[in-house]
Structures are given as C-alpha cells and as structure tokens.
Design goal:
By secondary structure, the chain is α+β, with helices and mostly antiparallel strands. It has two domains: about 1-90, Jelly Rolls (Sandwich); about 145-265, Sandwich (Tumour Suppressor Smad4), CATH 2.60.200.20. The protein is built from four helices and 19 strands. The chain has helices at about 55-60, 80-90, 95-125, 150-155; strands at about 1-5, 10-15, 20-25, 30-35, 40-45, 50, 65-70, 75-80, 145-150, 160-165, 170-175, 185-190, 205-210, 210-215, 225, 230, 240, 245-250, 260-265. It is globular. The model is unreliable at about 130-140, about 175-180 and about 270-275 (pLDDT under 50).
Length: about 280
C-alpha cells in the first residue's frame, strides 16, 4: 500500500478521467464535485478515514466526478492488483474499502426502492389526472439532513453534515477494537465515545415510513431525547415522530454532548399543481 501527497487545490482526478485507484484519506480533506454545463455542483466534502474513487477501481470507467484537495492532503492509494492480493492474503487493510462499497450498494438499493414506490404512486388511479404537464416530475424532492450540534460532535470529522437518502439510518458507538469491525455492519453513523459511555453500540435509528420520519430506540442503555421528549431506556415510549423543519436529538442523558440537529423537508411545496 502506497501513500501520496497533494497540495491544497490540486486535483486528484477529474470528471471523465480514466484511472483505477481508490483512495483513503490519511490527513486533510477532499471536495467531490461534478460539472453541469458551466455550473460546479459540490457533492461532498470528505475527511480523515473516508474512502473515495473506489468505483473507478471496480468498473474501469471514466470518473463520474472530480476530486480535489481542499488543504494539504495525504492519501493511501490502492490499485485493483493490490486489492486482489490483499483479498487473497486476508489482510484487514480491505475492511474500510469493503465497508464503503457495501454502503454504496445499500444506498443504490434504497434509491431504487424509493423510486419504484414513487412511480407506483404516479401510476395509481388516485393520482390527480389533471396535473399540469410540460415539466419534469421530480422524484424524491426532499431528504432529511443531519448535522452535529455540539463542540464534541463537530470535532469528529465522520459526523459532518449530510443528507440522508437510505433508511433505516442506524446510529451507534464506534468499536474500540479493530477485531470488532464488521464490514456488513448496518450502522450508518459511527460515533466516537468515551467512558462512561453515553452511546450504545446500536443506539437508535432514523426511519422513513410513508413520508414521515421517526426516531426509533434500538434498546440503548441510556436512551435519547428528541425535541425534549425522552425515548428508550426507562422512558414510556421508544419511538417518536419528527416534525417538519428543525428537530433536536441528544444521545444519552440530558447532559450529554452527543447532540444533532435533524432537518425534515417540507414536501407540501413540492406536490404537483393541478389545473384550475
């Protein structure tokens, strides 16, 4: 496994390039973007420990996006040949790459499931026949956004602001031992915690059911607080619905610093307009 360094502002690869390497960030951060005509669209900002470029290694197709160093960057580089050699030897070096690949597959499957549900709705006899034509139908018009809401969570690069597209989105404590790593883990947001632990290994899940979002406790030891309402542990309820707009989530007791803001989209403004 080799490492490479890039100065701030340097492109690692550009949209349309042919390359077969995948990268794991050792130090620094990377911006992933695409160009739509003359417009640059930023897809993500990645930090230490995160993987990018893995599909180029798998598919050998032109890069679908551009990766650029936001600051002085050190990355670990793995080629298809090195990946296969590590796979044969059973090296644990592959764990983060495999975890990322499986996560991409889960996300793709969830997007397909959601698209099929929405297409079924459009085909339903109950769908208004007098919807105005002439414009595209927008599928999946809004998604929930989660972002850190305390100094402790903001310090953890893995807990950056993100838009959720796949559910259930399970939140739990990061394992301390490498032996505990499970590439098939269903936990989507791993939180670094310290003793006495406030976050359980599988703490809670964000669920999306029939257009509504919920927080579901998963048997956590200390429970959570959603918009001031305790759930799980000794609380009466273990599930609560999120409201449209801003919601607060505290993992553990009221004095816990593991806090997040969950913003639920208002989908009423994206409903199709009917002819008058």
């Amino acid at each position: 496994m080799k490492t490479e360094q890039f100065a701030a502002g340097v492109r690692i690869f550009a949209q349309g390039d042919y390359s077969e390497e995948a990268y794991r960030i050792v130090d620094g951060s990377v911006e992933i973007s695409i160009n739509e005509g003359r417009v640059k669209v930023i897809l993500a900002t990645l930090g230490v420990g995160e993987i990018f470029g893995e599909m180029g290694m798998i598919e050998r197709l032109p890069r679908s996006a551009t990766a650029q160093a936001l600051d002085n960057l050190t990355v670990e580089v793995i080629t298809e040949e090195a990946f296969n050699e590590s796979l044969v030897s059973g090296g644990d070096i592959l764990v983060p790459y495999l975890t990322t690949i499986f996560e991409r597959l889960r996300d793709t499957n969830e997007r397909l499931r959601t698209a099929h549900e929405q297409l079924d709705t459009l085909r339903s006899p109950a769908f208004p026949a007098n919807v105005k034509s002439g414009g595209p139908v927008v599928l999946n018009a809004g998604n929930l956004v989660i972002e850190p809401d305390s100094d402790e969570t903001r310090r953890q690069s893995a807990l950056k602001k993100q838009t959720l597209t796949s559910f259930p989105f399970i939140i739990g404590r990061r394992a301390d031992l490498a032996a505990c790593v499970d590439v098939f883990s269903k936990i989507r947001l791993l939180i670094g915690d310290r003793m006495p632990f406030r976050v359980s290994r599988s703490h809670c899940a964000i669920e999306h059911v029939k257009g509504a979002y919920f927080i579901q406790d998963r048997g956590s030891k200390l429970g959570s607080i959603v918009n001031g309402i305790p759930i799980g542990a000794a609380a009466k309820d273990d599930r609560v619905r999120l409201r449209t707009g801003r919601n607060t989530l505290v993992l553990g007791p009221a004095n816990s610093e593991i806090c997040f803001i969950l913003t639920v989209p208002d989908l009423s403004s994206s409903r199709p307009e009917a002819d008058s």
